[in-house]
Write a structure and sequence with these properties.
Distance between the termini: 27 Å
Strand order of the largest sheet: 1-2-3-4-5
Shape: globular
Structural class: alpha/beta
CATH architecture: 4-Layer Sandwich
CATH superfamily: Ribonuclease Z/Hydroxyacylglutathione hydrolase-like
Radius of gyration: 13 Å
Order of helices and strands: EEEHEHHEH
Strand content: 25-35%
Number of strands: 5
Largest sheet: 5 strands, mixed
Number of domains: 1
Length: about 100
C-alpha cells in the first residue's frame, strides 16, 4: 500500500494505492479538474474501491466529476457527507444523472 498527497493548491486530495491496480480516493481538489484522474491513469489504476468526499466544498469534490466520468463502471463505493451544500454541487448532479440512467 502507498499513500499519496497530491498538491492540488487550495483543497485536498489523497490517493491510496492498494495494489492490484486498485485505489481509494479521498477528496479530489480543484486546482485542475483532472489532476487526480491523471494520477490514477499514470499508475494504471483500473478499479476504485472507494471514492470519498469529506464534505461538499468544491475544493474537495471538484475533481471527482472527471473520475466519475472516466471510472463510472469501476467505482465500487461512493462516500459523501450530505451537508447543507450537497444537492447544489456539480458532483451530486453527476451522480444523480448516473443513477437516473442506470450507470450507478
Amino acid at each position: 500500500m502507498e499513500v499519496y498527497f497530491l498538491d492540488v493548491g487550495f483543497g485536498a486530495c489523497q490517493i491510496i494505492l492498494l495494489g492490484g491496480r486498485r485505489a481509494i480516493v479521498i477528496d479530489c481538489g480543484v486546482r485542475s479538474d483532472h489532476l487526480a484522474l491523471h494520477f490514477l491513469k499514470r499508475f494504471g489504476i483500473v478499479e476504485i474501491e472507494c471514492l470519498i468526499a469529506s464534505h461538499s466544498d468544491n475544493d474537495h469534490v471538484g475533481g471527482a466529476i472527471s473520475i466519475l466520468d472516466d471510472y463510472q463502471d469501476q467505482i465500487k463505493r461512493l462516500f459523501v457527507v450530505q451537508d447543507h451544500k450537497w444537492l447544489a454541487t456539480r458532483y451530486w448532479q453527476r451522480i444523480d444523472h448516473f443513477i437516473e440512467t442506470g450507470i450507478l
